Amino acid sequence: MLAMCSWLLPSLISLIAVTHVAAGEFSFPVAVSSVAQAAKSFDRGLLWFYAYAYKEGEHHFRLAAHHDAKCAMCYWGIAICRKHEAIEAGHPLTSAALPYSKTSVSLLRRNEAEEAGGEREISDLEKRLIEELHESLTQKTPGEGQQYLIAALQDLRSHHADQPAVEAEIVALLTDAMLFADAIDASLSHREQAISILRGAIPEYPHHPGAWHTYIHLTERNTTDELGLMAAQQLPSFSDGRIAHFEHMPTHISWRRGMWDEAIDANLRAIATDHAYFSQNGQGLSALYYEYHYLRERAHT
Length: 301
Known about the structure:
The protein is an all-alpha fold. It has helices at 9-19, 36-50, 54-67, 72-89, 93-114, 124-137, 142-158, 164-184, 191-201, 209-219, 226-234, 244-248, 250-254, 260-281, 285-300. The chain is globular, with a radius of gyration of 19 Å. Residues 1-23 form the signal peptide. Keywords: Signal.
């Protein structure tokens, strides 16, 4: 499949070098480690998670844990990647994610015991995220677990309304959980609620790639939504020349509005980004799947 468009690569890579938007900045709003390289790898893992690139996300979370063996949030990151991967594959969530969630809780408890006189204070955000994910994975059914997680994130948001960066992160995780509730159990749909939350939050916090990504998936059929156009314009700025899926996502908005050139350009940039990244970093089946998706969408437009 990769050879199918190899003749396009030189022109595509030139195109992305010329037209790529300056990379948006993304970082988790609280320190998850006192080790700089661990914190950097964690941020990169979460960015890949928000791009639905779960293998790459897990890779960076594992790198973060390698740099800081005490990083409880690093194992939380692995757990959320494993959970979402299981949702998409239709596999049991508990067996995929729970072992890593248990590790994150164990490290959290150890860090709490050592917190007095330690290098950093454990934030309420990381403590609650770790505990609530773990509790959600121990519910009787995946649907009950997702409902629990959504309620917990809603409560967590209410306690951090005075901290804009923290609330923005919670909103991104909350609406992502609402979007994926459909995939777990269609009767648990929170789509309209998620749209309402994002429409209120995005103007306040317009620089979160997870929020933009979720918003596009929730509202792409609404061809008069100006916020959807803004999402399509903003999300590629977070690709950092690495994340092809963020380059591709404007297609979901453009082609429904007859913006054929924009849709084609988005998919060409996504293909070029994938080739440039995976020629240096290796690739997995998810990369092949998404490249097929980009090629199909280009043909469709």
